[in-house]
Amino acid sequence: METLERIVAEHPFFAGLEEQYIQLLAGCASNVRFEGGKYILREGEEASQFFLIRHGRVALEISAPHRGRLTVETLGEGDILGWSWLIPPYHWRLDARAVDLTRAIALDGTCLRTKCEQNHDLGYELLKRFAHIMERRLEATRFQLLDVYAAHK
Amino acid sequence: MATLPADPMVPDPYRVGQVWKETFDTFTVALEPAHNAASSAFSPGQFSMLYVFGVGELPISISGDPEEPGRLIYTVRSVGQATHALVSRKPGEMVGVRGPFGGCWPLAEARGKDVVLVAGGLGLAPLRPAIYQVLRHREDYGRLIVLYGGRSPRDLLYRKELAAWARQPDTQVLSTVDYGGLSWRGHVGVVTTLFRYVRLQPARTVAMLCGPEIMMRFVTRELESHGLQESDIYLSMERNMKCAVGFCGHCQYGPYFICKDGPVFPYSRVRSLLEKHEI
User: Fold this and answer.
1) SS3 content of chain A, % helix, strand, coil (to 5)
2) Is the pLDDT of residue B278 over 90?
3) pLDDT tens digits, residue range B66-106?
4) Cα-atom radius of gyration of chain B, to the nearest Å?
5) How many angstroms separate the CA atoms of A78 and A38, rounded?
6) Which of B193, B222, B224 has the most A C-beta neighbours within 10 Å, making it the best mutation to test the interface with A?
7) Residue A149 to residue B178, Cβ atoms within 8 A
8) Among B33, B85, B241, B250, who pairs with B52 as Cys (CB 3.0-4.6 Å)?
9) Is the pLDDT assigned to residue B181 strictly greater than 90?
């Protein structure tokens, strides 16, 4: 049977992370599943977790007046959902909805923040990995803003 | 490679065979040669000059199967007077065709390797002949990976074909849109985000890119971050082609004429130009 520790260790986000840190992370982890259509997190609510997506697809949505809900990005297997647990005031900045049945590992944000405060090496490792994801998503957002396929281009 | 007609400035008469709608603003036009059947031979990546009599002439990439003789296929977005006139032709009406012109995708060089095709928007049309070619000669190539980005679900081209290609062995086809509505169940995100879901073997991969220039800049950066060498990346450039044989200079791009030296270029030849503004 797969242990949480092994699942966490094998997720691409934690590739190459030292065993001792994996053990600390696994202590904050739990298995979760969301049926297609179910909201995983909502804008404005407390961000107390983040998710390692193992299977399925998640739509990140923003609601805009007169335009309804817009999907601005989807995440899938191997991706990370959520970094607001790391940044005060720890509130989600968008909605995330499971498009299909989604299986993930949830990591408790409060538990992780406490461990990172106690062990700055773990905190730095996590920050480096989240910074990389933030940089990739920022670049993708810039690309998206260019609207390069519009007819007038 | 196909040879130039005797006088490249004289159009061959072609008859409109069929016009069908791909999306709300994009159509595919099938043209059949009225006299010179040999003129329909082409290589993937080449383009023609299509003359809508009395309206104007347009450079359009050939989007059909190079091994299906006797007709030429073009996918055209109806955005101006000449493109609108072209897609409004009725079966049997005549259109002038010059070409095919330009160089082709490096399918010979890609033999024995994985082929990654990255298309943005209408850029899937010039890559489609390369997809046909790889699928027809499947044993000559490694994996085929097609990554396709569009603006929204209603803008995606060839949706049935994309699904059919995805069912072929050793073939991965991923599509994404920049913006998706609630009814869209596929990927949302720019085309570079699809690289998260493919495993490239950089030492044995050739990449071919077609789409808006800015999109290709983002994609080349992504490919290099996965370890591809610039010598294994090819892109199709677009400028306002007029004569199509390197005389008029309308399509000059630094030291090159896109019509004659391109439209397909190794990335190593145009990299420095892509990074300069206003060229």
Assistant:
1) 35, 30, 35
2) no
3) 998 889 999 999 999 999 999 999 999 999 999 899 999 99
4) 18
5) 20
6) B193
7) yes
8) B85
9) no
**Tally of CA atoms within 13 A in the half-sphere of B195 that contains its CB:** 26
Which domains can be identified in chain A, with CATH numbers? Answer: 4-145 (2.60.120.10)
Question: pLDDT band at A26, cuts 50/70/90?
Answer: very high
Mean pLDDT of A130-141: 94
Encode pLDDT of B246-272 as tens digits.
888 888 888 899 888 889 999 999 998
Per the rule left: phi > 0, alpha: psi between -120 and 50, beta: everything else, B67 is alpha
Between CA B110 and CA A5 the distance in angstroms is 42
Q: How many residues are given for chain A?
A: 153
Question: Residues B54, B99: contact at Cβ < 8 Å?
Answer: no
Q: Does A2 touch chain B (CB under 8 A)?
A: no
Confidence grade of residue B2 (pLDDT, cut at 50, 70, 90): very low
* Domain annotation for chain B: domains and CATH numbers: 12-101 (2.40.30.10), 114-236 (3.40.50.80)
Q: Round to whole Å and give the CA distance between B63 and B1.
A: 16
Residue A59 at interface with chain B, using a CB cutoff of 8 Å: yes
Q: Running DSSP on this structure, what letter comes out for residue B275? A: T
In b/e form, how buried is each residue of A49-78, taking b as 16+ CB within 10 angstroms? bbbbbbebbbbbbeeeeeeeebbbbbbbbe
Chain B contact for A133 (CB, 8 A cutoff): no
- Tokens 């190459």 locate to A16
Query: Which chain A residues in 21-40 lie under 8 Å from chain B, judged by CB atoms?
Result: none
Helical ranges in B71-204 per DSSP H: 81-87, 124-136, 159-166
| Mean pLDDT (chain B, rounded) | 92
Distances (CA, A) of B162 to A1, B98, B251: 38, 30, 32
Chains A and B form CB pairs within 8 A to the count of 75
ipTM of the complex: 0.88
Q: Percentage of chain B surpassing pLDDT 90?
A: 77
Q: Select the residue of B184, B185, B190 nearest A144 (Cβ to Cβ).
A: B190
pLDDT tens readout for residues A69-124: 889 999 999 999 999 999 999 999 999 999 999 999 999 999 999 999 999 999 99
Look up residue B180 and give its amino acid: G
